[in-house]
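About this split. The held-out portion is used to measure sequence recovery: a designer receives only the structure tokens and must propose an amino acid at every position. Recovery is the fraction of positions where the proposal matches the reference. Here is one held-out target exactly as it appears in the evaluation file.
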């Protein structure tokens, strides 16, 4: 494969909101082409033209159930599905030795370990958020947390549409980890995810999370550094899912011909 050859990208979960956005983005961008489309068993979209589903008109790519033959012909796969499916797709990507871009959130520690194992043979880019803005925000959060001492309490506030199933969001956790890294602490032992009833005073050094759900909000995230008589708030607002799709395609192009391993969007964007 040469860099002058369009990169063939398969989309899993192709009939979902993000899957359709990915198909439209691939179709509109240079250096890539739709290399396949996958849906779950029993989906009413199986056998339909992926372009028709995405509103592009026919592209002569039928939505299929079995990922193995699709992955065998693809150079990479874009995956914003669910953790169990993502682990399965990572295994298939490892078998095919192709690029696997993962925007799936909510993975357990065991699932994360299986993805790391797959990265011994697949080139995997995994991030809680694929947008340039959010990843730049994470760098700013880490630097702010390092510069501000424990007198500044850290709270991560996020809001998403009513259909989002995991909380806190993958992006909120990404930002929380950035804050923890800046403070030199582990997020797992420092985060506060739920407050209800008589909670007592806020633990010193804790990183708090607040989750809002409603309407059609694509994604709003704020990291608040609250000190005595002053407050700093770093904010990102996503207005269109296309920013995540474009980031995922750019990640796939960046990963093309790189050696197997587990990478992040900070690697892709050179922000680490």
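Reference sequence for scoring:
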């Amino acid at each position: 494969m040469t860099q002058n050859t369009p990169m063939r990208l398969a989309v899993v979960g192709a009939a979902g909101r993000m899957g359709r956005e990915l198909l439209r983005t691939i179709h509109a961008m240079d250096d890539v082409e739709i290399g396949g489309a996958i849906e779950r068993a029993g989906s009413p979209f199986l056998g339909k033209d992926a372009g028709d589903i995405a509103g592009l008109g026919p592209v002569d790519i039928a939505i299929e159930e079995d990922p193995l033959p699709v992955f065998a012909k693809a150079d990479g796969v874009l995956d914003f599905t669910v953790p169990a499916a993502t682990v399965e797709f990572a295994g298939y990507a490892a078998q095919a030795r192709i690029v696997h871009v993962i925007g799936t959130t909510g993975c357990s520690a065991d699932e994360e370990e299986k993805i790391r194992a797959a990265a011994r043979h697949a080139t995997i880019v995994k991030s809680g958020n694929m947008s340039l803005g959010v990843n730049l925000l994470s760098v700013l959060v880490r630097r702010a947390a390092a510069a501000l001492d424990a007198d500044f309490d850290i709270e991560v506030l996020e809001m998403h549409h009513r259909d989002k199933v995991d909380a806190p969001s993958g992006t909120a956790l990404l930002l929380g980890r950035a804050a923890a890294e800046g403070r030199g602490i582990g997020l797992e032992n420092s985060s506060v995810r739920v407050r209800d009833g008589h909670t007592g005073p806020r633990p010193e050094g804790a990183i708090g999370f607040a989750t809002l759900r409603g309407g059609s909000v694509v994604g709003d995230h704020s990291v608040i550094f609250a000190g005595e008589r002053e407050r700093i708030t770093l904010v990102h607002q996503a207005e269109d899912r296309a920013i995540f799709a474009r980031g995922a395609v750019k990640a796939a192009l960046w990963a093309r011909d790189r050696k197997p391993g587990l990478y992040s969007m900070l690697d892709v964007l050179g922000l680490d």
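Annotator remark: The mean pLDDT is 95.
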